[in-house]
User: Which sequence fits this backbone?
């Protein structure tokens, strides 16, 4: 089964900052979508909405402070349901490295390719949020195509 | 074997513009790296250099005007050698859709994750080049981490 993989490095003295941006509702609202609500605790569900484009409900599977966050998609586009999204953090000198994995896709396809590129763009928004205090979450996200 | 997949949409009235940016040396120099040389014809080799970071030699396997470009890596980082990079183009209304595939990786890993994100950034540079006449090729590319 194909995965979407990404790696970014955030200029930050501690992985705690990236961890906060990946777990606090205020943090998630600052880089992925401003319309984020729910309970970001293990077993809780966080709801990400993108206006007319719909959204995703993520069940929180793992929260390991400053190290790892994993979600499972429990509602959203059919191709996403059941897939798992994880962020592994580690410190490398002045950088917090984020290893991203979106796994469990049944098959590759044009929508998966779109999501791969769009995840890269949102991870750059996460990087910007932690480094500068300002990300580019929906509805101010960078458009990559006719699919937004 | 895992692949890197991406999809972007370029605002353009014809796929000929993206095809030119993917095949002419001047085009390639405008979005990937300014240090691009070689013969962009089937069987030819195009050399992409990124200063101290090294580079890639790509043998041109397929050139199907306005439709498809495929290269095979014949020199570069060990993980890249033998892998194939393709760009499939199609027109969808006001957009030229680029489906990108970098296939043949022996195994996933941190370097592949890095390359996945960096390809997304360079594809956005390709989009910018075709839409505005100005891309962000190396050495003016967007930095994503401590690995550049």
Assistant:
């Amino acid at each position: 089964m194909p995965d979407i993989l990404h790696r970014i490095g955030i200029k930050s003295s501690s992985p705690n900052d990236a961890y906060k941006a990946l777990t606090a509702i205020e943090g998630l609202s600052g880089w992925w979508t401003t319309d984020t609500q729910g309970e970001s605790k293990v077993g809780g569900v966080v709801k990400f909405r993108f206006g007319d484009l719909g959204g995703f409900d993520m069940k929180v599977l793992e929260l390991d402070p400053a190290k790892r966050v994993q979600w499972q998609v429990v509602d959203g586009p059919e191709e996403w349901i059941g897939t798992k999204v994880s962020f592994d953090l580690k410190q490398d000198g002045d950088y917090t490295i984020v290893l991203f994995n979106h796994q469990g896709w049944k098959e590759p396809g044009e929508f998966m390719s779109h999501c791969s590129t769009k995840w890269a763009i949102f991870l750059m928004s996460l990087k910007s949020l932690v480094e500068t205090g300002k990300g580019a979450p929906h509805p101010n996200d960078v458009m990559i195509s006719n699919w937004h």
